[in-house]
Amino acid sequence: MTLFLTLVIAAIVLGIIGAVAEGLFYLLVIGIVVFLGALVHLVLHWRRSGRRPTR
User: Model-level pTM?
Assistant: First the structure.
């Protein structure tokens, strides 16, 4: 879970810098990719742990 939170924070920081700084749009794109990677990591972690949603 620590890795997920670290990746999300890094994605937010990169996204803000990429959106605000002129000529650094690629940082926004990298931030989006890192965020999507964090979501994939979270989904894979939940599947490996065997947690099932309650009905």
Answer: 0.71
